[in-house]
Amino acid sequence: MGMLNGLEWRDKMKGLKVHQEKHYLMWEDGTPFFYLGDTAWELFHRLDREEAAEYLERRAAQGFHVVQAAALAELDGIYMGNAYGHRPLVMEEGKVCLPGKQGESFSGVEECAAYWEHVDWVIHRAAELGLFMGILPCWGDKWNKKWGCGPEIFRDSDSAYEYGAWIGERYRRDWNVIWILGGDRPVENEGQESVLDAMAAGIRSRDTRHLMTFHPSGASCSTDFLKCKPYIDFNCCQSGHGLEGYESWKFIRKMQEEEEKPCLDMEPRYEGHPACFQPEYGVFWGEREVRQNGYWNLLQGACGCVYGHHGVWCFCREKDSGHLKTWREGLEEKGAGQMRYMEQLRLCRPFFELRPAPELVEQEEWCGQYIAAARGDKYAFLYTPYGQEMKVHLEKMGDGPVQCSWFDPADGVFQKKEIWPPCPVVLRPPDAGHDWVAVLDF
Predict the structure, then answer these.
(1) Which domains does the chain have, with CATH numbers?
(2) pTM (predicted TM-score)
(3) Model confidence over 301-342: pLDDT tens digits?
(4) Is the dihedral of CA 359, 364, 367, 371 positive or negative?
(5) List of residues 6+ apart from 90 with CB closer than 8 A
(6) Confidence at residue 93, expressed as pLDDT on a 0 to 100 scale
(7) Where is the Apiosidase-like catalytic domain positioned along the sequence (predicted)?
(8) Which terminus of the chain has fewer CB atoms gathered within 10 Å of its CB, N or C?
(9) Which H or E run includes 331?
């Protein structure tokens, strides 16, 4: 598929669906859709319209297709108003009254109407730029206050269903919506599971068109909590920012083994994030780590890639020991500009046929050294995260010669070509020291 601008996407494509073989996503007309997402959890809550437009325009220009944000935000999103001082829910004597509850007319509540009109504006501006909004109806502390500000609003199925139906009705006509349940919390009991089931049912009672998924807590998968739920169209993991999910491809493989649905790492290591949440280590994840998670996941068969920057998701305005960049500075980090190259690589060969092919390479059991391999009918991709040499079984690819081209994930440029016989070979990147993709055609 050639690259389309935002207006062309809006005009040519009607919506998204799961490909019939259940590995990837596509537009309704059968065109491949690569879920290239950016993490902007606090977008609705912290930015005014001018700032939101600036953010959206920049991410659209960088090639992103999905922006992920929470309608009821994490960082005191209930009690603290948005950039204009407007709150999302009615407050009476310090308690939350859900919109429409007990016959109350939500449209007549001036403060709440203004909050949701701002959300509307952001979604509509994103649509004008050809961007999907991955909307979390609420952050996870609103149904499981295991940590965070809360409050835990949704404690029963009735309130969750009511809110789901309300927000589903509000945005069912917007073409650019993807629903994301969850919000970085585990499902720890049947009551919480019933709340999520009810919220999904409420949304589906009004909106049967848009895709839906679940954003789990760190180092876990949606299949750990909501396996075989019919409302989950594609599964997601959060490999996270520590060491538990360092080799993120293992989570993609786990989801693939547990359920036949497309899958995605919705929250891998963020660029600019302190390693293991400890700024005192003096180690912050950078462009290399971002690319590693992206290409590991990609060649394990993920249906796309999600990027995040630690100064952007929360729209940091002042630097501190844990945030070395403001949100505007974070927008221009190198990793953000390199994400589009993953899509370009995927689209340069037949899209839907790519499958993991670990049999093509010999692995060394060292953490972080995993060489990802995937193949289609007449091609293969091999990813070396540190530019190490690769022992490859070309004889498993066919009887004829194999052409090897080297793709640089840092700039999206193909470099030298080589021709090899169909036998075991050692492939060496053009230069060591950073990651490379070997593109094999046979």
Answers:
(1) 6-347 (3.20.20.80), 357-441 (2.60.40)
(2) 0.94
(3) 999 999 999 999 999 999 999 999 999 999 999 999 999 999
(4) negative
(5) 96, 97, 98, 99, 104, 109, 111, 112
(6) 62
(7) 20-352
(8) N
(9) helix 327-331
